[in-house]
Amino acid sequence: MDYFEAMEFLAGLPHSRPKLGTDTTERMLDHLGSPHESFDALQVAGSNGKGSTARMVESVLREAGLRVGLYTSPDLADLRERIRVDGRKVTKAALSEHVAALRPHVVGRTIAGDGPTFFEVLTAVALANFADRDVDVAVLEVGIGGRYDATSAVDPVASAVTSVSLEHADLLGDTVEEIARDKAQVAPGDRPLVTGATGAALGAIREETDVVTVGGEDADVRAVEEGTTDGFESRVSLSGEDLDVETAIPLLGAHQATNAGVAALLARQVAGIDDATIERGLRGAHWPGRFEVMETEPLVVLDGAHNPAACGTLATLLDRFDYDDLHLVFGAMRDKDHDGMRAALPTPDVATVCRPAVDRAETTEVLAAAFEADGSDRVETAGSVASGVEQALTAAGADDCVLITGSLYTVSEARDRWTRPTVPAEVRSVADARDVLDRADVPPGRARRTVEGTVGRTVTVEVRPGQAETIRVETLGAGGECAVSGAGSPDGRVELVLSGTLDAFRDLVAALDADSPGLGRIADEIRGAVGLPVEGGTGSGIPRGPAGSGGGDDARGSEDDRPTLMGVLNVTPDSFHDGGEYLAVDDAVAHAERMVEEGAGIVDVGGESTRPGADPVPPDEERDRVVPVVEAIADLDAAVSVDTRKAAVADAALSAGADLVNDVTGLGDPEMRHVVADHDASVVVMHSLSVPVDPDRRDAAAYDDPVGDVIEELAERVLVAERAGIDRGNVIVDPGVGFGKEAAESFELIARIEELRSLGCRVMLGHSHKSLFDAIDCPSGERLAPTVAVTAMAAEAGVDVVRVHDVAENAAAIRAVEAAGRLG
């Protein structure tokens, strides 16, 4: 079964059925061989906060060294987001395999009049995938209620009810007490249910099961938000039930402190996790779309509040910020309490109502009438969420606030503006075109019709289904070609492959500009991808030149179009290529001076080996290795980088004179982003799965498309950096060849390295002497020639920074590319 066929099958499933119960899900699991019995499972139910809590539990358990599956809903852009193992989405191949295994059973039950719903099938797929990936524990966010939810087909080892409010009355009951009793059915058999519920809801839950409570003074665990940080985080403390936790979490609000307490207790029920591990795990738990600050001038907040209680919490949070006018972009589902949500939100100066591209979404007419009846002075309508966002951003001043809320579906479509990949593709032949169309899951029939027209200037972009049809028509009208993926979902994004001459793209973007503000934004992204001028700049606007403090202005050669060479200076005894050669400070300084003389614009000082199987180095020991060297070379005519994954080491090195941090974990240490921001330094954000490289983790490194997957995962890390106050111009992305990737995947990343420029950051490549060259019969000691060859390819592709051990030879290769007029 191809992926697009699996998606078509899932899209055709019903979203509800008259019969309640878990029998249908249990029969599917029996059909698959009871995969859910191979791991422990946790359930997280609740009216609000269950997704955030599930994510925090997952992060803590991963920090404790467990392999963790996470099942949540809804998704923000891609159905596969709902099913993750160790933070990575289920692959297209795996999802297709599990859907194919289920299809005969589902068809048979449907014919018998007891067909499963979309959510039930996807739950079975998730559990099957977790078993295949050999997870230790799966964290399952309950869909609706608890008693009859598909996730209740498992026998949980621990469970929680985060909070209870009036919702889904047609299914769960007309009172908070009835709803609480339904949710309480997720309670495990031999452990107390963890809950942040209060009042009548808590009383009803106590009638059903034993509980351990999280919240205020009277709770078993006291959860307090002590304040906020400059980086839009909450400082929380958790005390009681043997917990003594103080940490910052990247989620704002007193309710998130309670959710953190619930997550901590759940994690401790599963494994004996100490306070320090809980603190680190909570610190790294990002959850998009939940009071997510996307910009600060104006303040732009995305929040998936979808009921009056959540909207009230959102209003309380927003009250902490100073702003002039409030521009509200609001879209909600038809079955929600619009009046209650509107009343709970702060009164907007301008309310723009919109309709997400979801069948259940309420019309703009109804929403506008609700706001007008409430006395809102200015109510506008938008043809789409994207257009509503652009209208609000255009109207807002730098000191205003743009709040986008009402539903996670609304937030999902709005978030596209900051996360949508628009990627140039090099298509020189029909074979290249077939590869691009195949990666985009264009069905064979469509691919045959469009493959010849795809040769030439090509861009891939992910848009909403309604936008896709408009763009397709306008592309054809401009004389270009547009192939549409068959794998899009009605509520998610669909990938387009756009091809044509520069004139065709020029006509296309002009037509999109004239259509709507939302499509105008996509037009600008296409302009950047194909090299057309964008308002306020030219081309993609991606900064070039070497990396240094403040985006590279202080580093040698900053006006040069050549890639900057980053020379490797390992002050370690066990690095794979030159470990032990430069342990003495004098030897390290001499080597740094030699590399600068040979043409290095950056010297990268590393005190811990990342080779496969290397032993971790304690922070104090690593700091003692690198800081004296950094101090000694700080005045060289080159930028100084520190190669570290530890925030404490980075802080010391930056204080000693380093200009940037080369972080092979991509900001894996939650403190790292704040250290970089505080020093106004640059940072290399590398894609990696484990550091040092763990050969046993290769089964976790499953890629459908290594380049597309790496771009998507790096995009989220770049957003994390920006939210901490790091300017995108100070971020350099590195695809991490050789880190959790097979040789073929690393070579594909090298061949398509230019696509990473779609992230809007400078790009670095670190391939020097790596084991990927074993695949072309170049063992250790014989890798200089292929290293130099790849450096030349990188220079031609426009890579900004190339990290190498042998500076003179690689500098010569770059000069040769320049002499041939082939610099990217």
Polypeptide structure, described:
β15, α13 and β16 (379-381) form a beta-alpha-beta unit. This protein has 824 residues and is α/β, with parallel strands linked by helices. It contains 28 helices and 29 strands. The strands form four sheets. The chain has an eleven-stranded mixed β-sheet, with helices on both faces. Strands 22-23-24-25-26-27-28-29 form an eight-stranded parallel beta barrel, surrounded by six helices. Strands 12-13-17-14-15-16 form a six-stranded mixed β-sheet, with helices on both faces.
**Count of DSSP helices?**
28
**Strand-pairing-aware structural class:** alpha/beta
Q: Quick one: overall form?
A: globular
Unreliable spans are 537-559
N- and C-termini, Cα separation: 40 Å
What is the helical fraction, as a range of percent?
Answer: 25-40%
Strand content: 15-25%
Average pLDDT level: 92
Rg result: 27 Å
Output the CATH topology of the largest domain.
UDP-N-acetylmuramoyl-L-alanine:D-glutamate ligase
Secondary structure: number of strands: 29
Count of the domains? 4
CATH class of the largest domain: Alpha Beta
CATH architecture of the largest domain: 3-Layer(aba) Sandwich
Strand order of the largest sheet: 4-3-2-5-1-6-7-8-9-10-11
